[in-house]
Amino acid sequence: TFQYLPYITYFTEYIPLFKEKIFGDMYSEFVTFYREEGSTYSRFSLEPKVRFPFSFNGINLLINGIFYETAYFINRSDTEEKGTKERRTMKIEGDANVQFLRNYYTGFLGLGEMQSLIKPQVKYTFIPNTSFRDIPFITPYDRLYKTNTLTYSLNHYLNALTEEGYREISLFEIEQTYGLSSNLEPSDIYSGYSNRFSDIKARLTLYPKENFSFTNESIINTSGEGVTGLRNTFSHIKPNIYNINISHNYTKRFTNEMYVDLGGTYGYIDGRYQVRYSLRDGMWIDTLYQLVYHPKCWAITLTLTQTKRPRDTSLKLAFDLTGITTR
Known about the structure:
With 327 residues, the chain is mainly β. Helices cover 1% and strands 68% of the residues. It has one helix at 322-325, and strands at 3-11, 15-17, 22-34, 40-56, 59-75, 82-97, 100-106, 112-127, 147-162, 165-179, 200-206, 212-221, 226-238, 242-251, 255-266, 269-278, 283-293, 299-308, 311-320. The chain has a 19-stranded antiparallel beta sheet that branches. β13 (226-238) and β14 (242-251) form a beta hairpin. The longest helix is centred in the last third of the chain and has 4 residues, at 322-325. The two termini are 37 Å apart. The relative contact order is 0.06. The mean pLDDT is 91.
């Protein structure tokens, strides 16, 4: 396992160019990947980016261009030799979407005036073929494979309009990616590869009442495996009194877990209980018990954690001068 020592980033906000018709920004990163045994690496990356947004007959268009300049400083453990390698590549993206907006009134749950927004979207991504010869594979960032894809999605947003603004009621998003010239390579742009079609990713979030929310996230394989990933989350928050978060996470052949996070506040005392339970193995994996006493400008936190992967128990006591560290 690598430690990131140090990890430094520098970035700029979008800078308007050519009378605000084009926008540019810069991102840079330097990180050293250190470990006790094995080769160690340092990586410096520079990513200038250009954005060109415009509209045509109600169609919103966006063209992005990113250039990746990456330098690697390698300290090999087998030969005790040091060396440098470079990687240059780029990414071009084109995004098009239209928005269909409708306002109406409903008495259901006392919601009142509603706003429905439907947004179909198409996105094109191109990354040229790049050689990775002698380039270390530290993180997925080091492997920007050849990409020529089309991602299509459909999004629906439902909001309740109020005098103060709006409140989100529901959100639905579904998308899939298609390889235009070949089978899909591994990428963080989509889920699933080795076929022309990626997995289908869908997300549904409901906010029936303030402080209540339910989210379902699904990954559906189109090559016959069916549902390969599923996550359901329920949340209820009563500010300064209690909060409840319950989630179920399922990944085919790997994970089937429940996670419960309960918290409460009474006066100057906060309490929290967390547990992660494996439905596949029939046992709890991690637990946390926490008490926080915060009278005014300082706080004391007592935390007991237990885990079975690997088996460990720890007790921590922390003192925080909150009046100094927060405003």
